[in-house]
Amino acid sequence: MSAFNDIRDYVAIPRVLSLKLSSDGSRLVSAVQSLDPDGKSYGTALWAIPLDGEPPHRLTRSAKGESAAEFTVAGDLLFTSARPDPTVKDPTDEVPALWLLPRGGGEARQVASRPGGVAAVRTAGDVVVFASDVLDGEEETEAERRKARKDAGISAILHESAPVRYWDHDLGPGRTRLFAARLGDGDRLEDVRDLTPDPGEGLRDVSFELTPDGSTVVATWRVHLPLGQFRSELVAVDVASGERRVLFADDRHDFIGPLAVSPDGARVACVRERHTALDVSARAELWIGGLATGQGRACAPDLFPADLAWAPDSSAVYVAADHQGRRPIFRVTLDGAEDGTVTRLTQDDSAYLGLNPSPDGRSVYALRSAVDRAPGPALIDVATGEITDLPSPAPRPEVPGTLTEISATADDGATVRGWLVLPEGASAAHPAPLLLWIHGGPVGSWNDWQWRWQAWIMAQRGYAVLMPDPCMSTGYGQEMIDRGWGDWGPRTMADLDAIVDVAVARDDIDAERLGAMGGSYGGYMANWVAGHSDRYKAVVTHASLWHLDQFAGTTDTPMYWQREFGAPGSDRYAALSPHHSLERISTPMLVIHGDKDYRVPIGEALRLWWDLQRVGAEAKFLYFPDENHWILKPGNIVAWYETVLAFLAQHVLGQEWKRPESVA
């Protein structure tokens, strides 16, 4: 029985989330997400992946789960968990604390805690740096003040600058700070001190790393500007004194993660992302700069870095970046006669993340996935590019069909490529109905395994799924992004039409049974398609943008979107907002949205739903009061797929509508 046949079996598949190699290269661990015993939630645990071919084994087990694994120089394992501390008689609120699991085995022990919890952690030598949410005011009274606030039933947050929300959570009343400590021989970290006692909003969504000698923290730092604007700089914080200096700053760019410090401690690699405007498109590039000099340069301009890591001799940076519907690993040489040379290391169809070069420089450990391959650990030989899959703590499910690649020539001569998932048995005698899936972003690509939008569930039920990369997709050069900038609907629609035409011309595709689906920006395009085409039998729009003017003022980051669209009420909103085509919608629509979605607020779905109602359009609204931009709870995932499948079965397959039991 396929794991994709029953949605409940699908949500129970364990998922490999991360990969971390010890500094001596002897140990590899992964965080694995799996279904909790109650079937209502997911939990995480740390697993060891032996490098000698032995089966992986579980290292941690707690109801609260574990994450943020980091190895100490001695090989002990640091991680965060909200598990209760057995040494405390009456624990209060369970917030994540820092734990240490000895290399030689035994029970994990809590080594640091904060009233606002412990988030990310980094270590070098005997130095540990971690992030924590801290209330303004006296540190000694913070726990008491948090309790008083809770006991008084106060949830109010007074803001004096934007933003106020991010993706799925409220910002404040605490602010992120960085703390430094020393690893001792006792049960707790020693000499814990606040490195950033007055950060303001500077460390919101911080990425940070430690230099190899533990003397300096390199971190992103948000600088707030007038009129609700901000930019991100890169700073260096001295661990001994707390002194902060700016490394890289530019009024026209953000310096953001992922970031990494070279093993020799001399340079830092990060991503430089330019600020967009009406006529300036999105662009991200690898940035290399000196820690002592503060001087840097852009490298590998055609790569949008998704992950990066230094070679152990500091002569190169390994970069995972989208490329032609894959995410290969590239090697960017930074020294000698070949300085600036970009070499593709992996030649397969996979997508890579979690890069961990081995200390001897011979290999890179990474998570390897693809559209038809769930993530798992792999070893890449640097000299030959040979790939060896390692035993995975979450065996990959077999997919029910085949994956093929197609391309089309758009009306402006550009090539538009994509993946086509074909169900088993699709042929000229039995052509498959086709679902067009439009990716989000819009700066993104279909190139790896999707837990959120799983095409193989559709293939199991006989659908072919087209996953195209139209304009503004990454991995095709800057020109591909420039083509669609400020022209979201019309330019993307033309690209989609071109590749759909190629797909339906195949004899194994049924050109009369088509559906279109998309989420986020893909949802925007699903709405656009509904108002500009009648070739589809059904449209599913998830977390979608409907009224651009409304969206651009209520999203969690108005600044970002208004750079591209202009001030509210400008011409671009009028030209590109899907709501202007409401009266032309004749295709049945399924609207899906989560109330906790702050990137695309629920008001978009509510307005779309009411607009469809008031013009008498055929539509349904699947509403999740407790979900955000993503549908994350196992039961809600089941409800999502069952409702989508029932809606498609009615309108694409011509079957009688049957309300799913999960939403009965």
Provide key terms for this protein.
eight-stranded mixed β-sheet; Rossmann fold; 664 residues; alpha+beta; globular; five-stranded antiparallel β-sheet; 35% strand
Tell me what you see in this structure:
With 664 residues, this protein is α+β, with helices and mostly antiparallel strands. The protein has 11 helices and 39 strands. The strands form 9 sheets. Strands 32-33-35-34-36-37-38-39 form an 8-stranded mixed β-sheet, with helices on both faces. Strands 1, 2, 3, 4 and 5 form a 5-stranded antiparallel β-sheet that branches. β8 and β9 form a beta hairpin.
What is the CATH architecture annotation of the domain at 405-663?
3-Layer(aba) Sandwich
Mean pLDDT: 96
Low-confidence stretches: none
Q: What would the CATH topology of the domain at 405-663 be?
A: Rossmann fold
What is the CATH domain class of the domain at 405-663?
Answer: Alpha Beta
CATH-assigned homologous superfamily of the domain at 405-663: Alpha/Beta hydrolase fold, catalytic domain
* First-to-last CA distance: 26 Å
Total strands: the figure is 39
Helix content: 10-25%
Strand order of the largest sheet: 32-33-35-34-36-37-38-39
